[in-house]
Design brief:
Order of helices and strands: EHEHEHEHEHEEHHEHE
Strand order of the largest sheet: 3-2-1-4-5-6-9
Shape: globular
Helix content: 40-55%
Distance between the termini: 37 Å
CATH class: Alpha Beta
Number of domains: 1
CATH architecture: 3-Layer(aba) Sandwich
Structural class: alpha/beta
Number of helices: 8
């Protein structure tokens, strides 16, 4: 990859793991475009944080579960890249945006299932496809999976299943994009205390204690345990790593 300023596009970059990833990349000299579905004020706050660190940043609205908006988003992104960086491409794509599901097999509705597929699988598939010409040769893609694609946990059957699909997609993308020098990996967090799933890990001490007992490193994770991992996987030193699943769970359910 050339020596020009690196730019990352991080979906769901307004909070949690996405925000931590943008800040971790900023520490490595990488600028960011972050997307948000709602909560524009959170996104603008992250942009301000990145600018304090001396980086350029842009926040763009995007619903990753609605493929009909991807064409227009690509155009908006092109304008932002040109206006802010004088470029037509970016270097790193982090497919991070997501929602959760907290129902057992017999409770999952078709509507809930479709929503998970739309955001975690269909959205990742077609957003990456749409942005492919805007990703620089030699760039990197990280898809966010979950420890729940490896181990099973009550009421996570739909969520864990679509994350399993993301892991298979990651391997196929690595094969297809290899000729362009683009490496593709997925990072699979364990339980992280953010507002995800209604903040259940963050707000439930008994769950935190249970997670700690089943985690080799003896605690649950926070967002800043995961963002630096994603930033590291995107780095030039990992360019020869592709098609891999990197679990960042502190050794959960080993």
């Amino acid at each position: 990859m050339s020596s020009q300023q690196r730019i990352a596009l991080i979906t769901g970059g307004n909070r949690g793991i996405g925000r931590s990833t943008a800040l971790s990349l900023a520490a490595k000299g990488v600028d960011s475009v972050i997307t948000y579905r709602s909560h524009s004020e959170e996104a603008e706050a992250v942009v301000a944080e990145l600018e304090v660190l001396g980086r350029k940043a842009v926040a763009l609205q995007l619903d990753t579960g609605d493929t009909s908006g991807f064409e227009a988003f690509s155009g908006t992104l092109a304008g932002a890249l040109q206006e802010t960086w004088g470029r037509d491409t970016f270097d790193y794509l982090v497919n991070n945006a997501g929602n959760s599901s907290n129902h057992g097999f017999t409770e999952v509705t078709e509507e809930e299932f479709d929503g998970l597929v739309d955001i975690h699988f269909k959205g990742v598939f077609f957003l990456t496809q749409r942005l492919l010409d805007q990703i620089a040769d030699g760039g990197s893609i990280v898809n966010i999976s979950s420890g729940l694609a490896r181990f099973s946990f009550p009421k996570r059957i739909a969520y864990g299943s679509v994350k399993g699909a993301v892991e298979v997609l990651t391997r196929y993308l690595a094969l297809e994009l290899g000729p362009r020098g683009i490496n593709v990996n997925c990072v699979a967090p364990g339980a992280v205390a953010t507002d995800f799933s209604g903040g259940v890990v963050r707000d439930t001490p008994a769950m935190q204690e249970s997670l700690a007992e089943n985690t080799a490193l003896g605690r649950h994770a926070v967002a800043d345990d995961i963002g630096p991992v994603i930033a590291a996987v995107l780095g030039d030193e990992n360019q020869w790593v592709t098609g891999q699943r990197i679990e960042a769970s502190g050794g959960m359910h080993l």
